[in-house]
Specification:
Layout: H1 15-34, E1 38-39, E2 45-47, H2 48-55, H3 60-65, E3 68-70, E4 76-79, H4 84-93, E5 103-112, E6 124-133, H5 138-154, E7 169-174, H6 178-194, H7 201-209, H8 220-227, H9 238-253, E8 259-260, E9 272-279, E10 288-294, H10 298-301, E11 309-315, H11 316-332, E12 339-343, H12 346-361, E13 366-368, H13 375-385, E14 389-393, H14 395-400, E15 402-407, E16 413-417, H15 421-428
Parallel strand pairs: 1-5, 7-8, 12-13, 12-14
Antiparallel strand pairs: 2-4, 3-4, 5-6, 6-11, 7-9, 9-10, 10-11, 14-15, 15-16
Helix pairs in contact: 1-5, 5-9
The structure holds histidyl-adenosine monophosphate (HAM).
Length: 433
């Protein structure tokens, strides 16, 4: 008799791994709590309409990936491919859309998508996510993204601070409102129809049902056609543009690094305005660690009182893959200290030594030159060690009770009051939000 095995694309999580899962889950519970979110647990199976009406009848998740079956009572049910639609269903069903104020919810748990299994693509996988219902504010979009990056940092995923640095990268785009979308789709349809013969078979299908999705096809030939095409940002109304400007400003205020990706569109139809994804190059083809965005029309579309909303979900298996890759790389590459404290002259060295100790106590790896050599020599040392930041402290700084901070990648120098420099550095290195 053939031996029984777990289904392809599903995995047992054995005791040697469960500790890692528990640690991740505990970090998530703690952080979501800190930001004022409360846990919701929705069923793993739902009436299929919850997803077809939310994600879009034509979305690939619905047409190709949803586990869909008839139950014994003849109802069409589905294993949840994601949780946003279920959370919105529950929000309406329990009358939360009738209450005023903002509802902040989070969830952890398995999702199901019948995709072709490969590294980072499972049929049963796990997400941790949040949904905020009832806020229009661009600060809320920024908070959700800041929370996602905070969670990644907390569980040990390195976050890139600028292009070219290894680590997780937050990419953002503005998909506009439904009115903008209609104009966008028309323009995209006409562009891609002209280049139809150059598209891959999947994109030929997408052209019929949702030409927006061609923009983020990974196939080389489709990417080159997409390069010459219009992008969502060209079709935005003034209100959607303004909202996005404010989101980006709020991200800056929260010291969250991001990249604009004008071709980012997401695979679910419910998004409006802000859409974002966190990618990590070590993940290969399935490079998204997490994603989300605003979905201001979904509550109404599912029969509730119009309620603006925004959220994200992150893939647990993909986080674990990144953490594993980091450990493997760290085995070969020494991790440089983050800060070099360059004190100029013996008098400054005494105080510089104090700053160094405080930096280390605050968890910032740092070194100094106890010989207090000339600045040029110390900068050479910092460069050789690979320190990203040099804290310069000489007579001028001492007199002004300031320190000078030099970003070694850009050469940019900033003066910061000495008393605030530890916090400034922690923020700059994104060790705190
Ligand atoms: P999503 O981008 O479809 O968004 O999924 C979020 C994350 O789940 C992905 O970035 C990835 O890490 C993980 N994931 C997705 N599919 C698989 C798979 N087959 N195997 C392993 N991991 C996978 C959503 O699900 C939205 N509900 C996010 C959201 C919340 N938007 C607003 N609120």
């Amino acid at each position: 008799m053939a031996s029984l095995k777990a289904l392809g694309g599903t995995s047992d999580i054995l005791p040697e791994e469960t500790k890692r899962w528990q640690t991740l889950e505990q970090s998530a519970h703690r952080l979501f709590d800190l930001y004022g979110y409360q846990e919701i647990r929705t069923p793993l199976i739902e009436e299929a309409g919850v997803f077809t009406r939310s994600l879009g009848e034509a979305a690939e998740i619905v047409t190709k990936q949803m586990y869909l079956f008839q139950d014994r009572g003849g109802r069409q049910v589905a294993l949840r491919p994601e949780a946003t639609a279920s959370v919105v269903r529950a929000f309406i069903e329990h009358g939360l859309d009738k209450t005023s104020g903002v509802t902040r919810l989070y969830y952890l748990g398995p999702m199901f998508r019948a995709e072709r299994p490969q590294a980072g693509r499972r049929r049963q996988f796990h997400q941790m996510g949040v949904e905020v219902l009832g806020s229009n504010s661009p600060y809320q979009d920024a908070e959700v993204m800041a929370l996602l990056m905070h969670l990644l940092r907390d569980v040990g995923v390195a976050v890139a601070r600028q292009a070219g640095e290894p680590g997780a990268i937050l990419q953002v785009n503005n998909l506009g409102c439904l009115q903008d979308r209609a104009k966008m789709l028309e323009a995209l349809k006409s562009h891609f129809t002209r280049h139809q013969t150059e598209l891959c078979p999947d994109c030929k299908e997408r052209l019929k049902v949702n030409p927006l999705r061609i923009l983020d096809c990974k196939q080389e030939k489709c990417r080159s056609v997409a390069q010459g095409s219009t992008v969502p940002s060209e079709w935005l109304c003034a209100a959607c543009k303004k909202h996005f400007e404010n989101v980006l400003q709020a991200l800056k205020a929260l010291h969250v690094s991001y990249e604009l990706n004008l071709h980012l569109v997401r695979g679910l139809d419910y998004y409006t305005k802000t859409a974002f994804e966190v990618i990590h190059l070590s993940l290969g083809a399935q490079n998204a660690l997490g994603g989300g965005g605003r979905y201001d029309d979904l509550v109404e579309a599912l029969g509730g009182t119009p309620t603006p909303a925004v959220g994200f979900a992150v893939g647990v298996e993909r986080i674990l893959m990144v953490l594993k890759a980091q450990v493997e790389t760290a085995g070969n590459t020494p991790v440089p200290p983050r800060v070099f404290v360059a004190a100029l002259g013996q008098d400054s060295l005494r105080e510089g030594f104090g700053i160094l100790t405080k930096l280390r106590a605050a968890g910032v790896s740092s070194v100094t030159d106890y010989e207090a050599r000339p600045l040029k020599r110390q900068l050479e040392q910092a460069n050789k060690l690979g320190c990203g930041l040099v804290l310069i402290f000489g007579d001028v700084e001492r007199d002004k009770r300031m320190v000078t901070l030099k970003d070694m990648a850009s050469g940019e120098q900033t003066q910061v009051p000495k008393e605030q420099c530890i916090e400034w550095i922690q923020r700059r290195l994104e060790l705190v939000p």
